[in-house]
Write a structure and sequence with these properties.
Layout lengths: L2 E4 L8 H5 L7 H15 L5 E4 L11 H7 L3 E5 L6 H4 L4 E5 L1 E6 L2 E6 L14 E4 L12 E3 L10 E2 H7 L7
Parallel strand pairs: 1-2, 2-3, 3-4, 6-7, 7-8
Antiparallel strand pairs: 1-9, 5-6
């Protein structure tokens, strides 16, 4: 079992293509490309922590997309996650933030970037979304949104390498 992190797909949100300069000609093309990118790296037995903004103004039910995605999926709620999204049967859990461990690394998960977080001074890593790559993290933190990672979920070793912390993998 491998653990992945991601955020900010905005499935169904046509305007996000323009706002984030995503390389897609339509919302259907974007949605299908992100489903394919997810399933290319995530296997059915893996775990995915989604750090918010799964879908926004989707014409189709977001549950149709969620059902197609591999893995056991946990949602950390984002500002665009409607009650319809939060209440879908496909989530293993839904919460405002989470503290988990991956390979012995303590993680604080939130949709929003924080200046400090639980265990900040004890080597905990903070993963977030929301900013679509437009704001750098501080200290041991990283934006795991799809706009930063080729529209796919990412593993902790890749994240630690990006924040210059690969020695702690």
């Amino acid at each position: 079992m491998t653990v992945f992190f991601t955020a900010d797909q905005h499935f169904g949100h046509a305007r996000i293509i323009e706002l984030c300069r995503r390389p897609f000609g339509s919302v259907d093309e974007m949605d299908e490309a992100m489903v394919a990118a997810w399933n290319a790296v995530v296997q059915p037995g893996d775990v995915v922590w989604h750090l918010g903004d799964f879908a926004y103004r989707s014409a189709r039910h977001p549950g149709e997309i969620l059902d197609r995605l591999h893995g056991t999926k946990h949602l950390v709620v984002g500002n665009h996650d409607s009650a319809r999204t939060r209440e879908m049967d496909g989530w293993a859990s839904v919460q405002e933030s989470a503290e988990v461990s991956d390979g012995g690394t303590r993680l604080f998960l939130s949709h929003y970037p924080h200046l400090e977080w639980p265990a900040y001074f004890r080597q905990a890593v903070h993963l977030f979304g929301h900013v679509h790559g437009n704001r750098a993290g501080v200290g041991r933190s990283c934006d795991v949104g799809v706009d930063c990672w080729g529209y796919r979920p990412v593993r902790l070793p890749e994240i630690l390498d990006r924040i210059g912390d690969a020695q702690n993998v």
